[in-house]
Here is the input.
Amino acid sequence: MSGGIIRSGKNYLLEEATMIVPTAPPIAEGDLQQRINRLLAMFPGDIARIFFRTSPDWTGDPSLFFTVYLTPTGARQDRFTNLIKNFPQALSTEVASEDFGFHSYFDFISDPTG
Here is the structure.
């Protein structure tokens, strides 16, 4: 993804020609990366890196898709159980993508290089 502003749509959406619905404000890519870096710091030793991309989801809504690369330690069952319990809330709190009109989706991938 190139630098600049990520927009969730135009300033307003016109639905059924009777109701105007304001869209969420744009988020700068650098701000999003800072939020992801804070999220990464919450799981030291368990997550090696987090990549993201923007794309519409299956309903056509703007979405952020996160690929979370686990370290060998983070892939252990006891640590992974902790990640499953805590990562979704941490993602919601730190990244707050819904505040900018994006749904969040994530996948965990075991990274043998750590």
